[in-house]
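Section 3.1 - Work completed
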Amino acid sequence: MNVLQDGPLFKFSEWPSDQVPRQAAGVYTIWREDDFVYAGMSGRGAQAEDFVARTDKTQKALGLWTRLNSHASGRRSGDQFNVYICDRFIVPDLTPEQQSDIGGGRLLLDQLTKSYIRKHLSYRFQICRDGSEALSVERAARAGILPAGRPYLNPL
């Protein structure tokens, strides 16, 4: 479990990473410097045979890679993590000018969210044998099993 806190740290500014398997169930933690921000997983309900951990770029992305790619995009639609980032880190700091630009369609919250993620956040990940293991590890991380405690945005 310590790989989720002490393992290699990958910057969203350098996404996509060849280190993330194109097909894998897994768990990830997201960090803002030393602050544990979020814990997530991909592969819920998947069996071991549904995923083969690979880094081959010709393989259709599935699982962990697609989840991290979604987060890196900054698009809030269908991505709860990006909604949390926008609501908790972007909206509170909007200037009246930015609010006006958003209202006028000259600035998009998704653009601000992507910029924030790429500038400030990094991630670690752990490959799991199937969705059941990934869910169990994610719940433990959200409940505070890591020395960093519970994640800021989605604690259990």
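Second construct:
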Amino acid sequence: MIVTLLLENAAQERFDRLRAAHFPPERNYLAAHVTLFHALPGEQVDAVLADLAEATDRPAFDVAVTGVRFLGRGVAYSLASEDVSALRSGLVASWQQWLTPQDRQKHAPHVTVQNKVQPAVARALHERLLAEFVPYDVRARGLGLWRYLGGPWEPVAELPFR
């Protein structure tokens, strides 16, 4: 299962438009997203949902969009938030025994708007987006839980902040 941070509608729509314009169409079967955890065990769905319900019992908060990252074969917007870091750290402590090496790594929240393209194509988009970039804030509205289906994701639950 995958856990994502859900963003306010206006931000989600903006990132989705960028992703639709720049992600290879044959690989673009997901909406733009902020992944918090990449691979939790599906058999633990009830425990995960209980922990997510507890984690979302808090007010919504702002997340800073801080920059544009070059990924080598893609581009992402970097995000920063003490609230996201604290929320994720609490879940890491609860889920330590289930975490893959990827989910144990230092977390760098981001929204990928392009991936799996030639480096020159990615570099050109990065330069263009960077030239027009001004930092701004978006509102986090909750957490999403998804089941990975070998490519596409199936929604399991959406848990809003209060």
